[in-house]
Amino acid sequence: MSSDVVTVERVIAAPPEAIFELLADPAKHPLIDGSGAVEAAKDGGGGRLTLGSTFGMSMRAGLPYSMVNTVIEYEENRRITWQTRAPGLAGSIVGGRIWRYELERVDGGTRVRESWDITKDRQRLGLRLLGFPARTRENMEKTLERIAQLVE
C-alpha cells in the first residue's frame, strides 16, 4: 500500500464480539489509543456506534484540540470505520483521515486489522512530509497491544 494508507494487524486471543464492543464505544477509545492523543469522548461518548453515528473526541498532541468523527462503514463484529474532521467551519479545512478496524475470526481468536487512510485528508502532503505514516504505524501497533490487554 502507499504511504497514504498504513495498515497493521495482529491476532488477538478473544472473540470478535469482545473487540468490537471496545471499538463501538467511544468512551473506551482513550483506553485503547496507542498514540496517547485521545483524552476523552465528548459528552460521554453518546452511546454505542452504528452506521452514520457522529461522535466527538477531546484530543491532545502538545496542545488540546477536538475532532468530530462520523462512522462511514459498519458491519457488526466485522468492520467499523470512521472519518475525522475538525468541528465547525474548520472541518472544511482540517481533517478527512479515515480509521478502519476489520475483524476476522481465525484459529486462536480474531485477526484485527487497523488502517489509517489519508487519501482523502486535506493535510495529506504535510502528514507525509512530517513522517506521520511511520509514527502512526508504531502507535497503531500499540493500540492493538492495548486492545489485546483489555480482552485477552
Beta fraction: 35-45%
Envelope shape: globular
- The gyration radius over C-alpha positions equals 15 Å
Report mean pLDDT, rounded to a whole number.
93
Give an overview in words.
The chain has 152 residues and is of the alpha+beta class. 25% of the residues lie in helices and 40% in strands. The protein contains 4 helices and 7 strands; from the N terminus they run E-H-H-E-E-E-E-E-E-H-H. It has helices at 16-23, 29-32, 124-129, 132-151; strands at 5-12, 38-41, 54-61, 63-75, 79-85, 95-106, 109-117. It has a 7-stranded antiparallel β-sheet, covered by helices on one side. The longest helix has 20 residues, at 132-151. The mean pLDDT is 93.
Could you outline the blueprint of secondary structure elements for this entry?
Blueprint: E1 5-12, H1 16-23, H2 29-32, E2 38-41, E3 54-61, E4 63-75, E5 79-85, E6 95-106, E7 109-117, H3 124-129, H4 132-151
Summary keywords:
alpha+beta; 40% strand; seven-stranded antiparallel sheet; 4 helices; globular; 152 residues
Task: Please summarize what this structure is.
The protein has helices at residues 16-23, 29-32, 124-129, 132-151; strands spanning 5-12, 38-41, 54-61, 63-75, 79-85, 95-106, 109-117.
